[in-house]
């Protein structure tokens, strides 16, 4: 009787405590998934299809929450693949589902929106919409996620759960991810991955890091009010331009004199509006800018100190000041879950080779993927495009920005591999990663 109980305990432990991968696929079979998916993604038919999709989207850029034609194209392609989806999510968003339809669920995210820029690149597929351009690579992001959808749908019988395909609107400052969360997009999702193209590293390489990868970000606008009058008799005025100038200088000391040099922070005044004539002191001046940090504590402290400095420095110059922080538009720190980092290193290393998986420093730019990763374990990485033999690829948000379309296969295969391997290794990854969810703003 004792022996039976011992055998039962061992059996229960084997079934419920060990990672799925131990009794489903060997380590060799797991390591072959990324290379097999890359070979599949690089087949001429699929590679050309992704390029064609990307070019269609590039020709017809749409701004945040206006991505109606982009969303329609995505749904048509998902219909063609036989992939079920939910729409609308956050106005134009789409969520497709591949796999068993049962837990566990892992999400892959691509942003859809363009920027209000006039494209300056002359090529056959230039933006047809004046003043709008895909200058941040979101057209490529959508094409790669659709490519991943084709790979996953073709291998759906091998998925040990469900992959959710997040086509997200309004990443560029409008907080589309927050709207998707409010619409229930993360319900039942255990983890989420996203990528971004970059011209800073070589094609076929990736860069990333665990922990904070992109800064939290806020904006501020201040109105400094005095008393206007003729410039020839300043003694009869209360000069808000002088007050605002002193405010700008004082704000520069918040980082240089108050912040820990090892705790990266930024305060930038990028807007200064006041007056309209050479000989008239205005009644008020409006200034505005951005502040950024790599922790919630530092970001909140910066916000408080910015208001204190503006109000106090205005008072020194006999002016009044009001400050607006647009708190609904605060972006959290984008934080990479440490367990998912090791998962990414394993998958990307198997596909690209360890030498092409690069460590990176944190960047003071921000991403609304942060709202996903503060709710559930998340992971964000950069996919290289650099190839001097083709051309110089400009950095994002430039009117001369272009895409190295040769990297679309890498992005699609990485998406598909990360999701497939996550589901296969879910037992091991989920228990550890949930202990590492980062609590941010």
From TrEMBL:
One of its GO terms (cellular component) is endoplasmic reticulum. The keyword Metal-binding applies. This is Peptidase M20 dimerisation domain-containing protein. Its cofactor is Mn(2+). Residues 1-19 form the signal peptide. GO terms for biological process: auxin metabolic process. Mn(2+) 2 binds at residues 136, 138, 172, 196. PANTHER family: IAA-AMINO ACID HYDROLASE ILR1-LIKE 1, PEPTIDASE M20 FAMILY MEMBER. Keywords: Hydrolase, Manganese, Metal-binding, Signal. Belongs to the peptidase M20 family. Mn(2+) 1 binds at residue 397. NCBIfam families: amidohydrolases (TIGR01891). InterPro entries: Amidohydrolase (IPR017439), Bact_exopeptidase_dim_dom (IPR036264), ILR1-like_Hyd (IPR044757), Peptidase_M20 (IPR002933), Peptidase_M20_dimer (IPR011650). GO terms for molecular function: IAA-Ala conjugate hydrolase activity; metal ion binding. The Mn(2+) ion enhances activity. SUPFAM superfamilies: Bacterial exopeptidase dimerisation domain (SSF55031), Zn-dependent exopeptidases (SSF53187). Residues 219-313 form the Peptidase M20 dimerisation domain.
